[in-house]
């Protein structure tokens, strides 16, 4: 069953970014590296490693542009439901092919926005070791360039009271990598809708993306000493 709610709001995402800036810089000490690598205009996909519960809000507060994240439907509970919708986030049912979420995500990119994806699908080691094909689908279908993002340090010295959250005022490094096209030979990936979308093409794109994300994570770890 799909959700009949309205499309994600760009204005809402801008509000979410302001909230994220206040919360993330107020509670922790983000160090942002390479934000200039995010294209200043046009559709972009931020592919983020996911090892901690604050990774999404951290990106919302540190990315140079407002971000619409694909967020599991379980998070849209109680008062968080209208709040997340209000700040332009995309609700997705991971148990099925959620057509509403797919339409909303492609709509974000079609309108020249920034889509945030955790390509590992769920929180884990945050090492990009296991990628789902969703990221490749959105990148190939939209033609949007992919920018790898490594969030590092958010699992260091976890709080005893709240293991999913780093200690207050802990440093968290957010490292943006170079934009790349999901399909080899596709230039900068901005010719929307021109990519091949066969199963083989998506599999090849997934492998290419995983290689690029893993290489970026290795570089980010060397750069930050994390």
Automatic annotation (TrEMBL):
Query: Is ATP-binding one of the keywords?
Result: no
Question: Which Pfam families has this protein been placed in?
Answer: Acyltransferase
Instruction: Enumerate the spans annotated as Phospholipid/glycerol acyltransferase domain.
Output: 44-154
Q: Which GO terms describe its molecular function?
A: acyltransferase activity
Coiled-coil regions listed: none
PANTHER family found in the cross-reference section: 1-ACYL-SN-GLYCEROL-3-PHOSPHATE ACYLTRANSFERASE
Q: What is this protein called?
A: 1-acyl-sn-glycerol-3-phosphate acyltransferase
Q: Which organism is it from?
A: Streptomyces kronopolitis
